[in-house]
Amino acid sequence: MTLIREIVELPGGRSYPVLVGAGARHELASVIDPKVKRVAVVTQPGIGVSVDPGVEHRVFEIGDGEEAKTLATILDLTRRFAEWGMTRRDVVVAVGGGVVTDVGGFAASVYHRGISVIHVPTTLLGQIDAAIGGKTGVNLPEGKNLVGTFWQPDAVLCDTETLETLPPRAYKAGLGELAKYHFLGGGAMDALPLPERVAACVRIKADVVAADEREGGRRAILNYGHTLGHALETAGSYDLMHGEAVAIGLVYAAELAHSLGRIDADAVAEHRRVVGAYDLVTTVGPEFKTEELVRLLASDKKALDGITFVLDGPNGIEPVLVEDKDLLAEIVERVR
């Protein structure tokens, strides 16, 4: 078993390994501190991925979907930890997609004021993005991820074998997030085998997180394609997965950057080529109303002093303030 090993380097000499490849989850025992007595495996029904931490462990299931990302889930989970007798020397292992790593990481960060967590992401989106970087969070009725912490894992095990059991649409939606990394320094990643593509995404995100652990500046570039993507996810009840929305958002961001004179037509064509090569939708559907999308763009949580987009340009990907709402509406129509 040959695994790719990446390292997330953080200020103060902190670092943790990310192991990528088929069978990576079987390395779990090797990344757990020998002093650990108990491991709480947090997962969801139906994940179907078992792990062996090599010490006493118990499985704690949470609910499915975004509905599980609540403070009530955190309360229930930490109470179950306490009933089992977990101490601050023990560790949480989160096995699942982004919901599981968000909830498991948050629970670990607040139980006994912080215990160790290890992530075993089982989705493509989790492996290339959600499980890397230490962001945790749950939702409030008022919005997504409004309560959370920055809590770095001790290790991340990206087992590409687990991707083979994903429903085709869920896997393809993860490719929407992967497409983003082509434009953050990944280049022609679609020519690489899957484990190398995952590792390339991890490497890019690790570099960004090392420079901006708590999202004070450079880390904003990881939201490339997400501004319109979040608006599409929020608008109505249309069935659109996160990665699918990000894919459309990437094309929108390229067209907007072109209209602002930041990139040329060839760069727009490359965005369309990359997204299209993953067989992802590149257009806004007729069920989305232009006025509603522009309104949602203005209410995005990153819209601090206007409508802030992350756009390509002569200096690379960077946040850009866009105040012309008529232009934003025009670009929506252009990508219909």
Outline the structure in words.
This protein has helices at 71-84, 98-110, 124-130, 168-186, 194-211, 226-234, 242-259, 265-277, 290-298, 325-334; strands spanning 4-10, 14-21, 38-43, 56-61, 91-96, 116-121, 138-140, 143-147, 155-159, 307-311, 318-322. It has 336 residues and is of the alpha/beta class. The chain folds into 2 domains: 4-166, 3-Layer(aba) Sandwich (Rossmann fold), CATH 3.40.50.1970; 167-336, Dehydroquinate synthase-like, alpha domain (Up-down Bundle). It has a 7-stranded mixed β-sheet with strand order 1-2-9-6-5-3-4, with helices on one face. The radius of gyration is 20 Å and the shape is globular. The protein starts with a strand and ends with a helix.
Helix-strand layout with pairing:
Blueprint: E1 4-10, E2 14-21, E3 38-43, E4 56-61, H1 71-84, E5 91-96, H2 98-110, E6 116-121, H3 124-130, E7 138-140, E8 143-147, E9 155-159, H4 168-186, H5 194-211, H6 226-234, H7 242-259, H8 265-277, H9 290-298, E10 307-311, E11 318-322, H10 325-334
Parallel strand pairs: 2-9, 3-4, 3-5, 5-6, 6-9
Antiparallel strand pairs: 1-2, 7-8, 10-11
Q: Give average pLDDT, whole number.
A: 92
- Give the name of the CATH architecture of the largest domain: Up-down Bundle
CATH superfamily of the largest domain: Dehydroquinate synthase-like - alpha domain
Biggest sheet features: 7 strands, mixed
Radius of gyration (CA) equals 20 Å
Strand pairing plus helix content: what structural class?
Answer: alpha/beta
Give helix % range.
25-40%
Query: What is the total domain count?
Result: 2
Low-confidence segments: none
Morphology call = globular
Please count the beta strands (DSSP E, at least 2 residues each). 11
Cα end-to-end separation: 46 Å
Instruction: Summarize the helix and strand pattern as letters.
Output: EEEEHEHEHEEEHHHHHHEEH
**Widest sheet, order of strands:** 1-2-9-6-5-3-4
- CATH class wording of the largest domain: Mainly Alpha
Number of helices: 10
> Might you state the CATH topology name of the largest domain?
Dehydroquinate synthase-like, alpha domain
The fraction of residues assigned to DSSP E strands is: 15-25%
